[in-house]
Amino acid sequence: MTIPVLTIDGPSGAGKGTVSRLVAKKLGWHYLDSGSIYRSLAIALLQQSVDLNDEEEIVKVAQNIVLEFECADELIVKLNGENITAQLGLESTGTVASVVAALPEVRRVLLQKQKDFRQLPGLVADGRDMGTVVFPDAQNKVYLTASAVQRATRRYKQLKEKGIDANLSLITDEIEERDRRDMERETAPLVMASDALYIDSSDMSITAVIEEVLGLIH
Ligand code: C5P
């Protein structure tokens, strides 16, 4: 039996995480936040002071990381037994994640970890290449985006709510830089799958986006 998968790809800050988590909850399906895998690797590399130009060492760390995920109200992630949830959302973590995510060997090593999430009764997977590379046979695919200004403003509010100091123009620059890196890399760049539903959430509420996504499944 083919296990159903719904993929939600798009640039950072488009609301993929919130939408995917709530859709997974509604459907009673598992949830894969693939960005958190690249972010966890970034944290491991920063913790171990690995030189980000040392590809061989980066791949070694990627091969050895042990990750545990708990999907409660928010996603809790443990890296080699340590709860790293608080560091996951930092912009600096996202930036290092996008640098190492461009390395083909890193992506190859982390591929199976992502595929393993495909379990009954189904999976909602969010990321950049869920519908194109990791689950190309997914029955339902969404490409969720929003304008860079909207995405930066959302990220800014999220950080502020968490009590993290943030600067809107810096976040906008970082988001644009990260988009560029994710879209222009040679391996698994962020592109819309040809069979994906395109949703621009710039002027939509989260509820409206969720309804549109659920409409695809039912
Ligand atoms: O989605 P999130 O912002 O958490 O992802 C952090 C970074 O990890 C992205 O900027 C991207 O470079 C990388 N990533 C990726 N492929 C995925 C998910 C995330 O390359 N499927």
Automatic annotation (TrEMBL):
Provide one Gene Ontology biological process annotation: pyrimidine nucleotide metabolic process
GO annotations of cellular component type: cytoplasm
The reaction(s) annotated as catalysed by this protein in its Swiss-Prot or TrEMBL entry are:
CMP + ATP = CDP + ADP; dCMP + ATP = dCDP + ADP
CDD domains named among the record's database cross-references = CMPK (cd02020)
Q: What is its main location?
A: cytoplasm
> What positions does the domain Cytidylate kinase occupy?
7-217
SUPFAM superfamilies for this protein: P-loop containing nucleoside triphosphate hydrolases
Family that this chain belongs to? Belongs to the cytidylate kinase family. Type 1 subfamily.
Q: What is this protein called?
A: Cytidylate kinase
Question: What is the protein's species of origin?
Answer: Crenothrix polyspora
